[in-house]
C-alpha cells in the first residue's frame, strides 16, 4: 500500500472527515509544488513530507500540524509563498510552515553562523508554538533514516548536529522514542566503524546472555505475583549509543559493561511502585548509590520513575525501572502526550507547565543574546539534562545541570538574585560562589543592593540562563560606560580642531548618525570608546561653521581615574600606575588601552597618530593597580617569608609570584597591588633594607 494512503488510513482513526479532506488537499498542493523535484535516493520529493507526517501521526498530532508537515518544505524549496499557504490552509498552518523553514534568503559569513541563526529562528517559533519543533524533529528523524545516500563528510556533519542539538531537544521535551532513534542514528553516522564493531559484539553477547535474562524475567514476575502485585514486566536491551557512552565515560571495554539489559515494571499506582521496589530489593541485593527516585522529584522534562540497579545471578548488574502506566506514556511521548492521550491528568498538566517554563526561559535567553552563535552556545549548555536537585531555604526543589555552581542557583531563582549575589551558604555553612552543588544541598544566597555580576563568573557557571544574564548585564554596563568615555574622547578631538563641542547642533548630529549607519548618537559615541570609530575622523565630519573656541578652552588630555570600568584597560605589557607618564591607544573592539609613554609597544607602532590620545591621571585616585618587581636574593631558607612580611608591612598585596634559582641566588618576580609610584617606591625601599636582597627593580612586560 502506498505510504500516502497509509497516512490517510492511520489519521482517519482519530481525525474528523473534514480534517482528512484538508490533508488530501495539502498532499495534492505539495505534490504539485514539488513536481519535478527528487531526493538524492531518486524518490519523488513529496515522499519526504509524507514520511514526516506519518511520524507525527503516530503521536496523534492535530490536523494543522500534519498539514504543515506535508507543506513544510514548500516555502523553502519552491516558489510558493507563506501568504499563499495562509490563504489556502489558514494562518496557523502558515505560521507553522514558516517556523520550520530555513533562512535561505539571508546571506551569512559562515555556514556555522547560518546554522546558528536558523536554530534561533526555529526556537523562537517553537517558543510561540511547540508544534514547530515537533515537525522539525520528525523532519530530522526521516532525514537521518535516509542518510545513506549522502557523502560521508556530510553524513558526519549532520549526525554531529543531530547528537548536539536535535536529540537533546527531543529528550528535553520527553520524546523518548524519537530521542533514542536520533541518538542511535547519530552514533551510526558519526562513528560508523565503532558502531559496527559494537553492534557485532552486542549480537554475540545477546546469544550468550539470553538464557540468563529469561531466568531473571521469570524470577521477577514470580516475586511480584507472590507480593500480590499486578505488574507488566518487560526486558529490554540497552541501546548501542548508551553502551558506547558508558564505555567512554567510565573507560571500560565492552566485556566490562555487564548491564546491557534492563527491566521495566509497570504497575497500577504510585504506592504499588514502592511496594514493587521493596519486593525486588528482597529478590536481588541493591547496589549502594544506584537508586534514584524520579517519582518524588521528577526530571525537568516531566519524566517519573523509580530507578534501581540490583546485583543479579552470576554477579550481573540489573537495571530496573518501576513506574505507572501514566508515567510510562509520558516517559515515551513527553510533551506529545497532550495530543496522544486527551486527558485532564495532573501529570500531563504539570508537564505542559514545565515545558512552558522552559520555552519562556528560551525566550529570555533569545532576548539577552544579540549574537546567534552566543545563543546557540547557551542552548547547548541548557539542553543537557539536569542531574542535581537542590533545595531553597523555603524547601522548594530546583533541578540544575551537573557542574552547576551557587551562581547558577542564584540565577535559577531569579535574574535579580543572580545579579546581586555576593555570598552563599550551603547547608548553613559559608562557601565560595564557585562551589559546585551536589544533590540534596540546601542553598541560601546572600545579596547586596549595589552588587553587580563579576565577569569572572563566566569562567565557571554551567547554565545557559546564568551565562546569558551575566553577559547581558556586562554588555549593558559596558555600553553606558562606553557612551560616557566616547563623549570625552570626541570633545577632546573637537577642541583640537578649534571647535566648541557645545555648539554642535542636533541637525549636525542627525546627519552624522544617518551617514555613519548607526541607530543613535549614543551608539556612535560607544563605538568611539570601543575603537570602532576614530574620534578625530568623527570630529572632522562634524566640522562646520560652528563657534570657534577661546585659547582657554584648547584641548587638554583626558583624565583617567581608574574607575571607568571595562572600557578603559591598563596594558599588561607596561603596567602603568598613577605617577607614570601615560598615553591612550584606541584599539578596535577593546576600547581605550592605557600605556606608559616609554612602553616599547607604543614607541615602535605609532603609524596612525589618530589612534593615540593624550591622557593624564586624575587626582584622589583610590583604587589599586598592578605593578611588577624583580628581586634577586641570597638562596637561603626563609627569605620568601621575610620578603612577603615586608610587602605586607608596606600595605601592599601579592597577586602572583614566580621564582627560579641560580647557584647561590634566587630570582623572584612579584606582581603587587599598589596605589601609585610613591607607594611602589616605599615597598621597594623596605625590601632593600633586607640583608638577603642583592638587587631589586621594577619590571615592565
TrEMBL record:
Residues 628-701 form the ACT domain. One of its GO terms (molecular function) is GTP diphosphokinase activity. Residues 384-447 form the TGS domain. The keyword tRNA processing does not apply. The keyword Ligase does not apply. Keywords: Kinase, Transferase. One of its GO terms (cellular component) is plasma membrane. It holds the Pfam family ACT_4. GO terms for biological process: guanosine tetraphosphate metabolic process; nucleobase-containing small molecule interconversion; response to starvation. Residues 45-144 form the HD domain. In eubacteria ppGpp (guanosine 3'-diphosphate 5'-diphosphate) is a mediator of the stringent response that coordinates a variety of cellular activities in response to changes in nutritional abundance. Belongs to the relA/spoT family. This is GTP pyrophosphokinase.
Amino acid at each position: 500500500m502506498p505510504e500516502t494512503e497509509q497516512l490517510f488510513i492511520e489519521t482517519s482513526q482519530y481525525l474528523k472527515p473534514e480534517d482528512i479532506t484538508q490533508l488530501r488537499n495539502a498532499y495534492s498542493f505539495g505534490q504539485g509544488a514539488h513536481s519535478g523535484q527528487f531526493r538524492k535516493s531518486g524518490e519523488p520529493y513529496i515522499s519526504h513530507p509524507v514520511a514526516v507526517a506519518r511520524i507525527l501521526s503516530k503521536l496523534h498530532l492535530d490536523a494543522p500540524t500534519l498539514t504543515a508537515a506535508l507543506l513544510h518544505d514548500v516555502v523553502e524549496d519552491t516558489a510558493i509563498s507563506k501568504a499563499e499557504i495562509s490563504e489556502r490552509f489558514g494562518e496557523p498552518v502558515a505560521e507553522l510552515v514558516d517556523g520550520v523553514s530555513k533562512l535561505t534568503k539571508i546571506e551569512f559569513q559562515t555556514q556555522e553562523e547560518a546554522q546558528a541563526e536558523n536554530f534561533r529562528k526555529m526556537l523562537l517559533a517553537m517558543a510561540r508554538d511547540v508544534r514547530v519543533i515537533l515537525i522539525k524533529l520528525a523532519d530530522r528523524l526521516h532525514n537521518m533514516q535516509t542518510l545513506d545516500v549522502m557523502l560521508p563528510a556530510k553524513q558526519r556533519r549532520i549526525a554531529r548536529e543531530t547528537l548536539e542539538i536535535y536529540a537533546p531537544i527531543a529528550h528535553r521535551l520527553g520524546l523518548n522514542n524519537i530521542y533514542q532513534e536520533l541518538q542511535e542514528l547519530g552514533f551510526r553516522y558519526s562513528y560508523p566503524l565503532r558502531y559496527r564493531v559494537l553492534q557485532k559484539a552486542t549480537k554475540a553477547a545477546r546469544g550468550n546472555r539470553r538464557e540468563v535474562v529469561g531466568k531473571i524475567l521469570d524470577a521477577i514476575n514470580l516475586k511480584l505475583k507472590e507480593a500480590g502485585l499486578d505488574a507488566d514486566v518487560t526486558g529490554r536491551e540497552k541501546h548501542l549509543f548508551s553502551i558506547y557512552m558508558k564505555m567512554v565515560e567510565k573507560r571500560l571495554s565492552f566485556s566490562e559493561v555487564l548491564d546491557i539489559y534492563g527491566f521495566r515494571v509497570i504497575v497500577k499506582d504510585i504506592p504499588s511502585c514502592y511496594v514493587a521496589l521493596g519486593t525486588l530489593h528482597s529478590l536481588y541485593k541493591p547496589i549502594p548509590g544506584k537508586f534514584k527516585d524520579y517519582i518524588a522529584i521528577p526530571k525537568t522534562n516531566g519524566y517519573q520513575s523509580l530507578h534501581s540497579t540490583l546485583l543479579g545471578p552470576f554477579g550481573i548488574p540489573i537495571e530496573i525501572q518501576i513506574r505507572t502506566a501514566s508515567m510510562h506514556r509520558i516517559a515515551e511521548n513527553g510533551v506529545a502526550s497532550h495530543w496522544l492521550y486527551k486527558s485532564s491528568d495532573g501529570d500531563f498538566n504539570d508537564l505542559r507547565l514545565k515545558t512552558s517554563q522552559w520555552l519562556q526561559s528560551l525566550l529570555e535567553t533569545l532576548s539577552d543574546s544579540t549574537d546567534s552563535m552566543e545563543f546557540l552556545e547557551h542552548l547547548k549548555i541548557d539542553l543537557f539534562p539536569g542531574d542535581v536537585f537542590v533545595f531553597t531555604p523555603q524547601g522548594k526543589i530546583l533541578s540544575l545541570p551537573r557542574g552547576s555552581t551557587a551562581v547558577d542557583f542564584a540565577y535559577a531563582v531569579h535574574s535579580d538574585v543572580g545579579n546581586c549575589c555576593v555570598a552563599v551558604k550551603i547547608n548553613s555553612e559559608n562557601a565560595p560562589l564557585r562551589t559546585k552543588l551536589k544533590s540534596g544541598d540546601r542553598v541560601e544566597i546572600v545579596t547586596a543592593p549595589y552588587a553587580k555580576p563579576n565577569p569572572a563568573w563566566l569562567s565557571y557557571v554551567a547554565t545557559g540562563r546564568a551565562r546569558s544574564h551575566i553577559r547581558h548585564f556586562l554588555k549593558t554596563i559596558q555600553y553606558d560606560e562606553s557612551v560616557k568615555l566616547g563623549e570625552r574622547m570626541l570633545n577632546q578631538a573637537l577642541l583640537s580642531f578649534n571647535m566648541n563641542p557645545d555648539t554642535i547642533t542636533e541637525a549636525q548630529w542627525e546627519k552624522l548618525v544617518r551617514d555613519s549607519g548607526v541607530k543613535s548618537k549614543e551608539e556612535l559615541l560607544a563605538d568611539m570608546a570601543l575603537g570602532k570609530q576614530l574620534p578625530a575622523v568623527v570630529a572632522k565630519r562634524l566640522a562646520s561653521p560652528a563657534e570657534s573656541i577661546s585659547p582657554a578652552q584648547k584641548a587638554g588630555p583626558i583624565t583617567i581615574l581608574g574607575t571607568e570600568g571595562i572600557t578603559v584597560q591598563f596594558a599588561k605589557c607596561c603596567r602603568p600606575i598613577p605617577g607614570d607618564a601615560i598615553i591612550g591607544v584606541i584599539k578596535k573592539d577593546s576600547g581605550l588601552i592605557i600605556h606608559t609613554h616609554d612602553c616599547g609597544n607604543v614607541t615602535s607602532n605609532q603609524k596612525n597618530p589618530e589612534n593615540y590620545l593624550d591622557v593624564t591621571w586624575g587626582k584622589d585616585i583610590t583604587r589599586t593597580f598592578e605593578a611588577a618587581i624583580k628581586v634577586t636574593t641570597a638562596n637561603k631558607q626563609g627569605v620568601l617569608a621575610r620578603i612577603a612580611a615586608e610587602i605586607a608591612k608596606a600595605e601592599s598585596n601579592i597577586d602572583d609570584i614566580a621564582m627560579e634559582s641560580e647557584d647561590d641566588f634566587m630570582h623572584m618576580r612579584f606582581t603587587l597591588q599598589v596605589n601609585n609610584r610613591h607607594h611602589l617606591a616605599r615597598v621597594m625601599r623596605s625590601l632593600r633594607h633586607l640583608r638577603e636582597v642583592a638587587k631589586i627593580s621594577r619590571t615592565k612586560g
